[in-house]
Amino acid sequence: MEKPFSAYKGPEPYVFICYAHRDKEDVYQDLSMLDKRGVRVWYDEGIPAGSSWRGEIATAVSGASKFLFFISKESLASTHCLQEVRFALDNNIDVLPIYLEECTLPAELALALGGVQVLYRDTDSIYLERLEQASKHFSRIADSTLPRPHRSDRKAPLLVLIAFAITVSAGLGWGALHLVSLILPAFKSPEWVLSLLSILLATGVPTSLFLAWMYDVRPAEIRRKTHRPAADKTEVTAEESSRSGEITVESAIPVDKSIAVLPLTNLSPIVENAYFCDGVHDEILNQLSKISDIRVVSRSATLQYRDTVVRTKDIASALNVSRIMEGSVRYADNRVRIHTQLIKAEDDTQLWSEIYESEFNDIFKIQSDVALKAASAMQAKMMPEEISRIERPATKSIEAYTLFLKAVARENEQSNRITGERDGWIEAGIRDLEKSLELDPEFARGFAQLGWLQILKRYTVAFNVEESNQLLVDAKINAEKALSIDPSIVYAYSVLAFVAFERHLWAEWEELELKCAALPDAKSGILLNFAERLGRVGRFDEALEVIDRSISLDPVRAHNREYRTYYQVLGGHYQSALDSAERYLSAGGDQSAYHLYRGIAYYFTNREDKALKELEAVTGDLSGAHLNCPIFCAFLHSRLRGIEAAEDYVTRQKSPVAKEFADFGRALGNRDFDHAFGNLKRYLRGGQVVSNLGEILDEIRLDTRWQMVVDYLATPKNS
Hints:
By secondary structure, the protein is α/β, with parallel strands linked by helices. Helix content is 56%, strand content 8%. The strands form 2 sheets. Strands 6, 7, 8, 9, 10 and 11 form a 6-stranded mixed β-sheet that branches. It has a 5-stranded parallel β-sheet with strand order 2-1-3-4-5, sandwiched between helices.
């Protein structure tokens, strides 16, 4: 197997790769992923012919910011690998062990690597994400929108060195003290100077011993001992936190400042008040998300744990968080009773708990107080502007807020159901929000939510071009109004990005998307929308980067996993797509779509026998999968089973959209590009941005008629 790329050479931070050559097939796949994601990598490809192997390795290891050790029976039996690891440890290079298979470390390595974070390639469902994140935290400056790694306590040895210097002075000084006593009279120094020097020398030894105890000085390392309150002990040392970033340690508790807020239990006696309980849950999530030092998983990730009997530790492991918040809400007779508690997942320790009882009018103070006290219990750093945003009431009108909560609850309940009804949940929500804004014309989030529902209505309910265009105009007006009141409303930026995208205002669209994504409370769904639009204009690798952020906020949602697989296929990352398909299926993804993605990946890596087996396993109608899946399926039928099989597949489609897309895939598979471009012209006339429909096949993009798609995308639209 050929080496996938040239090793990095230069002054910038990079990661060093240590592996056994018999493992290169697995290792090279991972290195290719890191290289494509912008991680600088040095591996043994970088040794020039005729140079000193040992010298080159020593230079590369000593200059690395991180050392990735791929552990297998082969690498543990390799003298070269073991020498490289020992050299890295001796030079205080951060080592990340990556297990390719189950094996036992030699006693020496087990001792040296004890307590550090490890990755497991074959058993970790999000291994590639963890590997990329760990490498990026050390190989280049982390993106400002990603969680920052903790400050390393390797700076602490400065204090120990100071103490050591004092100790050396004490050891040598007693011998020199007599000499000093002879010199000082020449400078006419008072007698107390000699006494002071004696005292300073005498304190050197106990000072050094104290600091050595504090920093746990050992022959091979200096480690800060962590002293925390008993209620918030953790097995992650400061050194381990500095190495980890977002990487899960052995206990599966990755970082201290990550939280999942479980759905609150509704104790209200009136069933119709359930919207209020869901609204409080949403608001606590929103408030915590405004703190950039805390990673808050999305609401959608926690819904499966409503009224759950799953252990707290297991929930935290599944969601990759260290803290869980749970509680209950009772709303009756204009009074609220809210009980919340923050739990350390590792040992089920309660870190903070409080019961609030008050009039409904105090709901904003309660929600803000919950967020701020939970953040304080997590020892999160809060900027003044973040505290100000949290403490600012959403609206001056409680009645307006009630209508807003009803509209949001209706969307949360119904958003996965596209009804096309003229008087369905979208229009009911729009009416509630319009009433809400009449009560408070300065309700910024109300304007943003109204614009969002108008965007949804355009895609699901609008039946003609004139109505569709007017909804875009209205959504833009409402989003701009929201930002004029509060420039930090994430949904307002998302609405404006939708409008700019539909109008082909590409520079404006990208600027708005980036502003939206940079806000700490950008939700998983909003990021996924951004990724989807990046993909629609053929920017697949960028889409994958945004999807990874979305997954970090909602690691259990199958939709996230499917989009990752989908854009890896379109971007030509076929081996990664095979891996992602497994995670998509394990997250509850559509089984037929799982086989289809694998079939496409196998086909484009010249494994047609495997592709055919996967295609034969596609027995469902793919209605629960990505809209473009019928294109893939018809394409494979054409290429693997023939024209008649492809035409039969097109005929069997029940949905007009699925039939249209399947027909396009059949044309691509048969290389009937006249027919395929006829389909594309219809899509463009309908106002669709469709560049990725042809990305599956290089041949169609080489056709001169593909220029019409390029021209269409480059032309702004007035409507």
